[in-house]
Specification:
five-stranded mixed barrel; 178 residues; alpha+beta; two-stranded antiparallel sheet; 33% helix; OB fold (Dihydrolipoamide Acetyltransferase, E2P)
Length: 178
């Protein structure tokens, strides 16, 4: 269980049967998660794997890098399409964040959930991002990437899409800030 299964089941149960949910609350206990959890409103989508979120109880926006994916740079082929896909999914929506740290640029590293659906998984399933391994963590979405490739979805409709890491080594990054 990844730490979201039970809370998301609870979320669905509350919507479907509020009375039953109250009874289940007494029976269920949610184990402590290793990562910090919070929520916020997505105010800006910079590219296919970076959003700016106004965290609950705060007025400033925080840059958030989606853990487990690597989308094309905004100036790279497919970069605008990847950004548009993430924007359609998250822009001006309240999301749940499972914060796992911070990167060298000061962005929060987090898994991002919208209505209990993993936004990173969705981006890879649609073919708009590669499954990507951060630090010592395993690749989260390798199977989804393989299926997107096989289905020639999104970026994988191209014969040889260039992975963003290779593009950055050759051209550098194309940062976009709100």
């Amino acid at each position: 269980m990844d730490g979201w299964t039970l809370p998301c089941a609870w979320h669905r149960l509350k919507r479907a049967a509020p009375g039953l949910a109250l009874g289940c609350l007494v029976a269920w206990t949610v184990p402590a998660a290793p990562a910090e959890r919070t929520s916020g409103l997505v105010r800006y989508v910079a590219d296919g794997d970076t959003v700016y979120v106004r965290l609950a109880g705060q007025t400033d926006q925080q840059a958030v890098r989606l853990v487990g994916i690597d989308a094309p740079e905004i100036c790279q082929g497919g970069g605008l399409a990847a950004r548009d896909a993430l924007q359609a999914l998250l822009q001006e929506r309240t999301v749940e964040l499972q914060i796992q740290g911070q990167d060298d640029y000061g962005r929060l590293l987090a898994r991002v959930f919208i209505d209990c659906a993993d936004a990173g998984r969705s981006m890879v399933q649609q073919g708009w991002a590669w499954s990507y391994r951060f630090a010592r963590q395993p690749e989260l979405y390798a199977a989804e990437q393989q299926a997107a490739r096989a289905g020639r979805l999104g970026l994988f409709a191209q014969p040889a899409p260039e992975p963003p890491a290779r593009f950055r080594r050759r051209h550098g990054s194309c940062k976009v800030a709100p």
